[in-house]
TrEMBL record:
Entry-linked CDD domains: HAD_Pase (cd07516)
Keywords: Hydrolase
Classification via Gene3D superfamilies: 3.30.1240.10, HAD superfamily/HAD-like (3.40.50.1000)
A GO CC term assigned to this protein in UniProt: cytosol
InterPro entries: Cof, HAD-like_sf, HAD-SF_hydro_IIB, HAD_sf
Secretion signal span: none
Name listed for the protein in its UniProt record: Cof-like hydrolase
Gene Ontology molecular function: magnesium ion binding; phosphatase activity
PROSITE patterns, per the entry: COF_1 (PS01228)
Keyword tRNA processing: no
PANTHER family with a match to the protein in the record: HAD SUPERFAMILY HYDROLASE-LIKE, TYPE 3, PHOSPHOSERINE PHOSPHATASE
Pfam families: Hydrolase_3
Length: 273
């Protein structure tokens, strides 16, 4: 932790990352977290689920949570409230083309996401593992054909951590016009510039007429760092990456010990003191 909180009571918005944060390591929603989010909503706090997942992989979590709210998917590139799209950004087609070529040259597993479609060139252990986590199955298609039908909201590169480290450097060397974000050691998320989770927080706040200073954000990995800094109160999970923990104002217990619930009760109770 490296900053003093700019949090302003009362809390009006709760932004939650999903994997590694709201869900435990078995990708289940702990009942303690569900109860705590309901407690916050009962105090008049709006809820936003903010994840690198595609929207159809967030929907079952939102349904299980049972609290209406805004959903920001693809790391913030697409924001919806169930009725309308609040924000929609795509990767430039030439950027997507470059990434597709580079992944083929460097044997990186690539997933192409656009709206509710998930495309892969071929199934492999990485796409199978992602499917197990999200409950979705990709469509196998030549990714250049997928690109011809429309630009993606997100490209997801998957591979062993060392290979992803090297590929990150390759993308930087090619000057790829996109934000390169690590959501876990084996995942590199490629999303439109200026469409990260921090931008998503600001767009949601604008939509709900809430100051970011009255928002609490909870996350666990590098992809959440900008979000944690943009919120009035940024909270990293105990299982969070070093970068996420450094960006936060407060450290919650880990995701196998209902860290989200602990953070909500700690800060909402402090607000009422």
């Amino acid at each position: 932790m490296n900053r003093n909180t700019g949090f302003s009571f009362p809390l009006r918005l709760l932004c939650l990352d999903i994997d590694g944060t709201l869900l435990n390591t078995s990708h289940q929603l702990p009942p303690e977290n569900r109860a705590a989010v309901h407690y916050a909503a009962a105090q008049g706090v709006s809820v936003c689920l903010l994840s690198a997942r595609p929207p159809q992989a967030i929907a079952p979590i939102a349904q299980a949570l049972g609290v209406p709210g805004v959903i920001a998917s693809f790391g913030g590139a697409l924001i919806e409230d169930g009725v309308q799209r609040i924000f929609d950004r795509r990767l430039p087609e030439d950027t997507a083309h470059t990434v597709i070529e580079l992944t083929q040259q460097n044997e990186i597993s690539l997933s192409f996401y656009r709206d509710t479609a998930w495309f892969v060139a071929q199934d492999d252990k990485w796409s199978n593992a992602e499917g197990e986590i999200t409950g979705l199955r990709p469509t196998c298609i030549a990714l250049e054909h997928a690109l011809a039908a429309g630009a993606p909201h997100k490209l997801l590169c998957m591979g062993d951590a060392g290979r992803i480290d090297r590929f990150y450097q390759i993308l930087q060397a090619h000057g790829v016009q996109a934000d390169l974000l690590r959501s876990k050691d084996e995942y590199l998320e490629i999303v439109p510039q200026h469409a990260d989770k921090a931008r998503a927080l600001r767009e949601v706040c604008r939509y709900l007429d809430i100051s970011p200073a009255q928002a609490m954000a909870i996350g666990d990995h590098d992809i959440d760092c900008a979000l944690l800094r943009a919120a009035g109160l940024g909270i990293a999970m105990g299982n969070g990456s070093p970068a996420a923990r450094q960006a936060a104002d407060w450290i919650a217990p880990d995701n196998d010990h209902a860290g989200v619930a602990a953070a909500i009760y700690h800060w909402l109770k402090e607000e009422t003191v």
